[in-house]
Amino acid sequence: MLGLTPYPPDYGVYMPVFMSRETLEHSVRYLAGGQAMVQTGKIYYRDSYIYVNERYKGVHIINNTNPAHPVNEGFILAPGCIDMAVKGNILYLDNAVDLVSFDLESRQVTHRIRDVFPEPLPPDDFSYYRFNRPQGYILVEWKKYNQ
Q1: Tens-digit pLDDT profile for residues 76-97
Q2: Cα 109 from Cα 81, distance rounded (Å)
Q3: What pLDDT shows up at residue 134?
Q4: What is the 3-state secondary structure (H, E, C) of the chain?
Q5: Residue 70: its pLDDT value, please?
Q6: Is 96 in contact with 56 (CB distance < 8 Å)?
Q7: N or C: the chain end with fewer CB closer than 10 Å?
Q8: Exposed/middle/buried for 6, CB within 10 Å: 0-12, 13-18, 19+?
Q9: Burial class of residue 29 (count of CB atoms within 10 Å of its CB; 0-12, 13-18, 19+)
Q10: So what's the pLDDT on residue 147?
């Protein structure tokens, strides 16, 4: 990943983080074992599983077969992920600007459609200037300065 600042830090609180198009297209994968939940977003429930979005990072997979003792089973790494939906056995998620379908049984990406979504705006609503963008890179995250 590549973090670049298109303007001096005193103009905005957040810095865009970029990833090459090639790296982005090979970035979605299943990681066994739970990851720490830090900046969660949307939640989706299907059968006895809970899917929790980790903003800009991916999706937590929680086995809720025993609601008294949920188990954080795995994590779908998907840089730039903000949203998700499940239909049947397919998890649809955004991988930055791309729409990806991920088979929950095989734990593999089954399809990718490029450039479906707009890039996310900075969280502080500061104007983002695209003129300083590196060629062939996709914005995948906004990070606070000094983080």
Answers
A1: 999 999 999 999 999 999 999 9
A2: 14
A3: 81
A4: CEECCCCCHHHCCEEEEEEEHHHHCCCCEEEECCCCCCCEEEEEEECCEEEEEECCCEEEEEECCCCCCCEEEEEEECCCCCCEEEECCEEEEEECCEEEEEECCCCEEEEEECCCCCCCCCCCCCCCCHHHCCCCEEEEEEEECCC
A5: 96
A6: no
A7: C
A8: middle
A9: middle
A10: 55
Whole-number percent of the chain with pLDDT over 70: 85
Residue 132 in contact with residue 11, Cβ under 8 Å? no
Tokens of 64: 């809720």
Structure tokens belonging to residue 127: 């104007």
Backbone angles phi, psi at 112, to 5 degrees: -140, 135
pLDDT recorded at residue 61: 97
R_g of the chain, CA atoms, integer Å: 16
Average pLDDT of the chain, as a whole number: 88
Per the listing, tokens 């979005």 go with: 53
30 vs 121 pLDDT, higher one: 30
CA distances, 132 to each of 24, 115, 121, 124 (Å): 20, 20, 16, 19
* The pLDDT of residue 114 is above 90: yes
Q: Which tokens hold the place of 30?
A: 């299943």
